[in-house]
Specification:
The protein is α/β, with parallel strands linked by helices. Helix content is 23%, strand content 39%. Bound molecules: guanosine-5'-monophosphate.
C-alpha cells in the first residue's frame, strides 16, 4: 500500500514560498484587475493560500481538466468543468499545483488564449522539469522538484492525502 513517506517540502517552506510568489504577483499587476484560475482539483489549496497572500482584490474561478490516471500521464485532456467568468480583455493568472509533462497546462493555456484575455500568466507551485514533453513555461514557479510522485498540499494519490499541509513522497508499506 502506498502511503506518504519522506517530507519533500515542509509546511514552513511552502508558507515562505507562497509569500514570495504573492509579492511578485502583487508587484507585477500593481492593482490591476486579475482573475486567478485554479485548475482543479490539485490547485485549490495553493490557490486559497496564494489569493490571501496577495495585496489586492482578485477574482477567482476554476476549471477542471482530466489528464491523469493513477500515476500515469495519458496525454488526453478533457474539460470536466469550465469557467463561469468571461475572461476576454482580463488579466488571467492560471494557478497550477504542479507542471509535470506540461500537457495539462499547455492545453489549459491554449483554451484560455482563444478567449482573448488581456494577459495570460502562469503560476505553479511545483515543477518537474525532467518530465516535460510540451514546452510550457511558468511565469512564477515555487519549487523545482525531482522526478518523483508527490502528494499533499492539494496533490492526491487515489484522491487521498490532498489535506496534508506539506508535500511528501510516497512509500510502499
Ligand atoms: P501534466 O499534464 O503536466 O503531465 O500533469 C499535470 C497534472 O498531473 C497535475 O496538475 C497533477 O494533477 C498531476 N500530477 C503530476 N505529477 C504529479 C505528482 O507527482 N503527484 C500528484 N499527486 N499529481 C501529479
Amino acid at each position: 500500500m502506498m502511503v506518504p513517506g519522506k517530507v519533500l517540502i515542509s509546511e514552513k517552506e511552502i508558507k515562505k514560498k507562497v509569500r514570495e510568489l504573492a509579492k511578485k504577483v502583487s508587484l507585477y499587476y500593481k492593482g490591476e484587475d486579475v482573475i486567478m484560475i485554479g485548475v482543479l482539483k490539485g490547485a485549490f489549496v495553493f490557490l486559497s493560500d496564494l489569493m490571501r497572500a496577495v495585496k489586492f482584490p482578485v477574482k477567482v474561478d476554476f476549471m477542471a481538466v482530466k489528464s491523469y490516471k493513477g500515476t500515469e500521464t495519458t496525454g488526453e485532456v478533457n474539460i470536466l468543468l469550465d469557467l463561469r467568468e468571461d475572461i476576454e480583455g482580463k488579466n488571467v493568472l492560471i494557478v497550477e499545483d504542479i507542471v509535470d509533462t506540461g500537457i495539462t497546462l499547455n492545453a489549459v493555456k491554449r483554451i484560455l488564449e482563444k478567449r482573448k484575455p488581456k494577459s495570460l500568466r502562469i503560476c505553479a507551485l511545483l515543477d518537474k522539469k525532467e518530465r516535460r514533453v510540451v514546452d510550457v513555461r511558468g511565469d512564477y514557479i515555487g519549487f523545482a522538484i525531482p522526478n518523483k510522485f508527490v502528494v499533499g498540499y492539494g496533490l492526491d494519490f487515489e484522491e487521498k492525502y490532498r489535506n496534508l499541509p506539506y508535500v511528501s513522497l510516497l512509500k510502499d508499506e
